[in-house]
Write a structure and sequence with these properties.
mainly alpha; 2 domains; about 70% helix
C-alpha cells in the first residue's frame, strides 16, 4: 500500500510543479518577458496563446489549481493539452516518427490548418497512450505508426469517427 501512496504523492507533486511552471510562463508572457524564457518555454508561450480563448482562466489561476482534478469525461485538462501539443510539435520537427509527419502533411493538404492538424496527430497519439496507461503495457509504437498510415488518406473531419471506430 505504501508504494501506491508514494506513487500518488509523487504524481500530485509533479502535477503541482507543472501547473506552477505553466503559471510562471503565463505571467512572463503577460509581462512581456518572453525573451527571458528558454526555447521550450517560449514554445509553450506560443501554444498557450493559441489556446488562451479556451483556457485563459486555467492559465491565469494555474498556481492555485494544483488540487483540481479534471474529469476527462467532461473537461479538457489544459495543462496536459498544451504539453501534448508541445510534444507533438517537437516530434514533428524531428520527423520522428515519420508517419506522424506524413499524417500531419496529409491533413494540411486536405485544408486542416496547422493547429487542427496538430490536434489530429494528438488524437491518434492519445488513444495509444491511454491504452498503454490503462492496461499497464508498453506504448504500441507499431500500432500507432500503422494507424497514422491508415488514417492519412481520410479527410480531417473524418479522423475522430475513424478513431472511435478503432476503439470499438
Amino acid at each position: 500500500m505504501t508504494d501506491q501512496n508514494d506513487n500518488q504523492s509523487m504524481l500530485d507533486i509533479l502535477k503541482t510543479l507543472n501547473r506552477e511552471r505553466i503559471h510562471a510562463i503565463w505571467e512572463a508572457a503577460k509581462a512581456g518577458n518572453v525573451a527571458d524564457l528558454d526555447d521550450e518555454d517560449q514554445k509553450l508561450v506560443q501554444i498557450m496563446l493559441q489556446h488562451q480563448e479556451e483556457f485563459h482562466n486555467q492559465f491565469e489561476f494555474a498556481d492555485v489549481m494544483s488540487g483540481h482534478d479534471f474529469d476527462p469525461e467532461h473537461e479538457t485538462n489544459p495543462f496536459i493539452h498544451i504539453r501534448l501539443h508541445s510534444m507533438v510539435e517537437n516530434y514533428l520537427e524531428l520527423r520522428d516518427p515519420i508517419e506522424a509527419y506524413q499524417f500531419y502533411l496529409s491533413m494540411r493538404r486536405k485544408k486542416a490548418d496547422h493547429h487542427e492538424a496538430i490536434h489530429l496527430v494528438s488524437t491518434v497519439f492519445v488513444y495509444f497512450l491511454f491504452e498503454a496507461l490503462k492496461y499497464k503495457r508498453p506504448f504500441d509504437n507499431d500500432g500507432y505508426r500503422n494507424t497514422l498510415k491508415r488514417l492519412k488518406d481520410k479527410k480531417p473531419e473524418k479522423i475522430m469517427a475513424a478513431m472511435e471506430k478503432e476503439k470499438g
